[in-house]
Amino acid sequence: MDSIVAPVTALVPQPVGILRLSGLNLWQQIQPLFPGLPCPAPRKATLLTLKRQGQAIDSVLVLFFPGPHSFTGEDVVEIQAHGNPQNIRSILHSIEECGIRQAKPGEFSLRAYKNGKISLLKAESLHRMITAPTYGDFLSAHSSFSRPENHPLATIKEAFLDLLASFYAFLDYPEELTDSEHSYSHSLLFPKILTLQHLSRHQLSLFRKNRRVFSSFSVLLAGPPNSGKSSLFNRLLQSDRAIVSPYPGTTRDLLEGRLSLPFGDLLLLDSAGFRSSNDLIEGMGISKARKTIAHVDRLLWVTSPETLAPLPFSTRTPYFTIWNKVDLSPPPPILPPDFVVSARTRKGLRQLLDALVSLAEDFYSHHNNSTPLLDSERQAQALSSFLKAITRAEDSLRSNAFDLALTSLEEARNLLEDGTGMISTEEIYDRVFSRFCLGK
């Protein structure tokens, strides 16, 4: 298997930039970068001079994690260098000259999974932990990652193994079960099925409740062309994120910008100006903006002296009306806005931003749930199919069609394997023999 390398930190100016490598016999491969130097002691930061064709490039800290006791199960090396992006690119190129290729997205975690270092559940919990938009979401994912037994699918797996053990004991050893144990075939199997159905439906409900198009508190700026949306967008972000032009139709797609707040991100979206347009691309941008309104938490309808227009459609999304360019003209009495601002002079921007921050804080106070949740749409789909298979098994059991119930339970087992990883036959029969007095 090829050795791989990837930047751990973004290629932007910063004090320290980190590169991670993984592969077999890794130190021998990168030895040309450290000519004449021995392999560093495992798990100890060592200051070395990194060279390229004998020329010193940088003084770096090197950490060596020998396999199999590493994240990927292979040898892993981390190089901490000065964080100038050109320096990191130069070191990356030097590493590639040693025959080490750049990693594909997620390839380090994939190798960890293939080498048995993490389970499929832990891999997806890790991804959710890294991309969590709030600290509560991070804690939820971290709980599943650090304590896999807390993962919702692990809980469901335990309940399912109990059901399978009871069902297989009845099928395989009916003559050795006592009368009370034999009752598991009917009266005590159904409570186990109902428990599984309740657990599955509850987790799917939580997942759907927390599934959103935008994971953060989202605010869409919309309005007629030339109302100053993009200027306002830039002012709120304190960055020239959007192109500003006196010509209508400059913004044609959704632009995203984030304000990082102590309790979570505030996501700002700038959209195409709402008007009738024969321009195909602009029309697509307007259509996209209309569809996005239903998925954001707050709409800012921006108008100005040149573009006086009330909100031209009804929406269930809460919204503020914004009168922009107040430095040119005050708002008309017939259309009193919620906020009066000037993107040019910054008048009223602090009041608007404070209101949005307050809304975001309230939003996160109600959505900051650290309860373990499903990590991905893939898990939700597997659990939904599992629930259907369990329900079919229940219907078959009520009709005493045990062969059909077995087929449905085996289907459910395969689906849960897809969601959690392997459910071994040994696990099932260990439970059969440990919970029943068989073969006396």
Explain what you see.
The protein has 440 residues and is of the alpha/beta class. It has three domains: 4-114, 2-Layer Sandwich (Gyrase A, domain 2); 151-210 and 375-435, Up-down Bundle (Four Helix Bundle (Hemerythrin (Met), subunit A)), CATH 1.20.120; 217-367, P-loop containing nucleotide triphosphate hydrolases (Rossmann fold, 3-Layer(aba) Sandwich). The protein has 14 helices and twelve strands. It has helices at 26-30, 85-97, 107-114, 120-131, 135-146, 152-172, 179-182, 189-210, 229-237, 280-293, 349-367, 377-398, 402-420, 425-435; strands at residues 4-7, 16-23, 46-52, 55-65, 75-82, 101-102, 217-222, 255-261, 264-270, 298-303, 319-323, 339-340. Strands 3-4-5-2-1-6 form a six-stranded mixed β-sheet, with helices on one face. The longest helix has 22 residues, at 189-210. Residues 241-252 and 435-440 have low confidence and may be disordered.
Name some characteristics of this structure:
single chain, 440 residues, alpha/beta, Gyrase A, domain 2, Four Helix Bundle (Hemerythrin (Met), subunit A), Rossmann fold, 3 domains, six-stranded mixed sheet, 12 strands, disordered C terminus
Set down the secondary structure blueprint.
Elements: E1 4-7, E2 16-23, H1 26-30, E3 46-52, E4 55-65, E5 75-82, H2 85-97, E6 101-102, H3 107-114, H4 120-131, H5 135-146, H6 152-172, H7 179-182, H8 189-210, E7 217-222, H9 229-237, E8 255-261, E9 264-270, H10 280-293, E10 298-303, E11 319-323, E12 339-340, H11 349-367, H12 377-398, H13 402-420, H14 425-435
Parallel strand pairs: 1-6, 7-9, 7-10, 10-11, 11-12
Antiparallel strand pairs: 1-2, 2-5, 3-4, 4-5, 8-9
